[in-house]
Design brief:
Chain A is of the alpha+beta class. Chain A contains four helices and four strands. The two termini of chain A are about 40 Å apart. Chain B is built from four helices and 51 strands. The chains are: A alpha+beta (about 140), B mainly beta (about 725).
Amino acid sequence: MKALELVLIVIVLVLLYVSLSMRTITPKLSLRNDYFLLKEEAYSVARVLADSRILTYLMSKEQAEDELKIVVTALVPANREFEVKVIDTSTGEKFVAETPYFKRSTLAATAVVVYSDSVSGKIYVIEVSLGKITGG
Amino acid sequence: MRGQVTIIAVVIIALFLISLVSVAMMHYYEVHNIGSIEVKTIAMAEAIESIKSDLKRILALVIANASRTYAFHPYEHNLTKFRAYALEHFEKWVITTSTKYGAVVELRYPEYVHWFAGKGYVIQENYVFKLYWYKRTAISVGYLEANISLPHLGIYNVTTKALVSLCTSLLEVDHSYDENVTWVLMNVTSDGVPVSDISGVDITILFPDFDRYGYWVKAEVVNTTYLGYGLWNITIKPYIPRIQGVIPLRVYVVDYRGIVVSPLTYEGIVLRVMKNTPDKVVYHDGSTYRTLLRTTTPDEVYTVELDWKFSLHFLLNEVPIVGTPPPPIPPIPVKQFRLYSSSDLTDWQLTPFQAELWKEVTWHGKEIYVPTSPANPVYWFNQSCRLVFQVKYPTASDKYVYIMITWESDCDADVIEWPTSLYFDYRLPSYKDIVSETFRIELIDTEHQEMRDYGFNYHGVAALGLREPVTDEAYGPANIHAFGKWGNKLGAWRPYGTWKVFSTYAGEYSWIRLPVRVFATLNSTKVGNVYTGEVRSDYYDTFAILYVINGSRYAPCLVHIYWKYTKTDYGFWMFACMGGGRPSKYMYLKKQEYVQYKGYIYNVSNEYSYSGSWSHREYSYPNFFCTHWGNGIGRAVFLSLSAVDALYDIGTYPRFAVTKWAPGWIPQHSLEYEFNQLNYETKVYAGTYYKYWFVIYMYQASNSWGEWKKAYVYSVMFLEPYAPSIELVEVQ
């Protein structure tokens, strides 16, 4: 009987460990809580950039990338790394703004929005990638 | 006790297992259900909403491009071109959208009617956008529809519509002299919604500069007040006076998208062109003065030019507008203009006109106006432009013709291609002819030296070869000036050069023939000898303008002559026109004659026959009219008073002359005006300048005596004191 009790206790301890580990494993497995939320956030940022008149203004600036970074930093939620690319489809010219640790993101989602600028007569593609550094 | 521990352990294990299973199920649900439904819904919504909102932006982009260029570019006013650009933009946008969203987007451009200020503005199918400007209400509007399919998300044929507009209506304009301000009450809507935030809209208001007529000055916007429902009261400086009840303003409204509209506070200018010719003409038949009533004058058709200052030009006459000039003709594309004429201010007829470019040049120290080209209809009307049109007075009771200058609001409006008899038959080496229903004038010059069927090489001398327009029979050349003799041959030195012909509109409209008149210019610094072919540049310079007019029986030629060197010779011609030997009779109006017991009589009609054996005859005291007729031809030459003055000022013994034969016994039966009789040695001094016009008039005549009267009734038309005048009636 002693052996049975011992086995049961070991099983309980193992299950306890597994249950406790779920707190960290579950978010990693969950699509809704991370990737898709990031994607939604990225879309929001991209559409705010497109639907407001700000990009028309930003693209006319000399330091467009710096200005873009300031604006996107204000728009994205805290604890998000980001990379924003604004691509001029007529010339292929890219304006890129990103946070220093974006490349270290363990999870990232990208939203793409097309933006036609009636003032400059250009069509831009806005790619907003939001990332999160998770784990260890 | 032992059993209890076992039971508790089993229960705990069971709870753990239930918890783990629920976590696993939750994960399974997220992977298989959220990913395929919720996430799909989110992605779908985002993609479709993004495409919809960008559809409006791409439409705004093409309207902004077109309206901005149309408003501010001097000649890019072809909206069809912008629609082609728009389609390129749309195609690029569809490709970008397809690749970035994975969407299949199909654009459609159906007809759409946009209502603003109680009026419907149509965007025709496939037009995408329209601009209706230059009236008190101006709108820029575009409409399109898109069919969106997102196959990877299972979405097919979602239809979305995009309407983009900027509309402005100038409701009221008032002013205060004491406050030195002018107010404009305007209504502004964007995409059908009243604009309540003026910060996104740039308003520029221009008013005519009253010190420098024809220029526009930007007014200072000193205040804007929002009154609700898109109504804005704009206060500008300075005080702008009313002209004929209208405060003339040009307004540009540009919204944050770059879309432009341009309304004007006036939409048309009505003018009255007055005939000033007398109802009768008088001549002396040698025994008494006779009167010819000008009851019916179907050929009293004036081809006049209206310049940017509303001065009326007829030949070399310039008659300024009577009284205060109206607001300037606005600088909008020439193709937008329309001219209406009326005899009673109620029944208005659309009237052909053409726009020409003129410039003032200094020609040997004299300021002269010369036509440089027909206007390009897509260019703005500017200070170089003249509107050329005809005013008709077919009966004595017709004293006025009302002309309304207005403009189309539809920026797609194009030049009207009027039917015309005019064309330029340019097929060298044989043909360089300007043709109308009355004339076929073969231009003889350096590139076309020999008149067809005439058998005489002019060696580059510029002259007008007159031909029968239907049968193409040659009457022979009309020389516009000549000096000296070559042996016993007449008219040794004549203008040498090339006629430059303008028969179509300029630029991309060169396929449209000019509807009112074709003109040719000759700018010559040399003279040529038709007998030897010698060319010299030590005589005189010539600037001549020839008009061949649609629907009229006359062709005027304006001539400026400047002598560079002093010359002495026999024979000096202002004009000589051959008749191909056909006319049988001729007549000239003698300026004055002394008759014993009567004293001086004036404007004496002297009729003669070409019959008899003689070669050249000269007659004293020529005046502004001569003609020859018979054998189916009736041709008159009208001179201006300036031409008559030149004859008497430059010449000592001016003569009307006729010549029966050209060298080689070519029949002529000419009409000639000479500064001096042939046997008088003429010395012309360097620096001598004179200008004149002669008008060749064709009429139907039998062989009878007295047929000249048919032409004489029109002679007063071309005398300076009787030139038509102009006054303002109203500004609409």
